[in-house]
Amino acid sequence: SSSSSSPSSSSFSARSQVWVSPSSSRAKKGERVSFRCLSTIDPSLSPPLGGGIRWFRHGKPLRDSPDSDK
């Protein structure tokens, strides 16, 4: 009889994953837009990734506004 080890479900619980991705939005320059997503982040990641998700557009990071609820 061969034995194979499989990872426990708890070993996967801390991995980062986006459950609900933000949808596209169009806006004129200077207009505000909101993007919503649902995710979990692996707490073992070092900042800045461990502190949240960073979004990029055309390779450049998007900035949070002061009233962002992150």
Number of strands: 4
Computed over alpha carbons, the radius of gyration is 17 Å
Give the termini distance in whole angstroms.
51 Å
Low-confidence stretches: 1-12
Strand content: 15-25%
Overall, the morphology is: globular
Helix count equals: 0
Helix share bin? under 10%
Q: Give the topology string: H per helix, E per strand.
A: EEEE
User: Based on helices, strands and strand pairing, what is the structural class?
Assistant: mainly beta
> Strand sequence of the main sheet, in spatial order?
1-2
Structure write-up:
With 70 residues, the protein is mainly beta. The chain is 0% helix and 16% strand. It has strands at 17-20, 38-40, 56-57, 60-61. The strands form two sheets. Strands 1-2 form a two-stranded antiparallel sheet. A two-stranded antiparallel sheet has the order 3-4.
Question: Layout of SSEs?
Answer:
Layout: E1 17-20, E2 38-40, E3 56-57, E4 60-61
Antiparallel strand pairs: 1-2, 3-4
